Amino acid sequence: MQESTVTSKIENKICTIFLNREKSMNSINIELLSELKNLIESLRFSNEIRVIIITGTGDKAFCAGADLKERITLSELQVKQFIYEIRTTMNLIANYPKPIIAAINGVALGGGTELSLACDIRIASNTAKMGLTETKLAIIPGAGGTQRLPRLVGYGVAKELIFTGRMIDANEALSIGLINKITEPNELLSEAYKMAEMICNNAPIAVEQAKKAINRGCEVDIETGLVFESEAYQACIPTLDRLEGLKAFSEKRKPEYKGN
Question: The domain at 204-251 falls in which architecture?
Answer without folding.
Answer: Orthogonal Bundle (1.10)
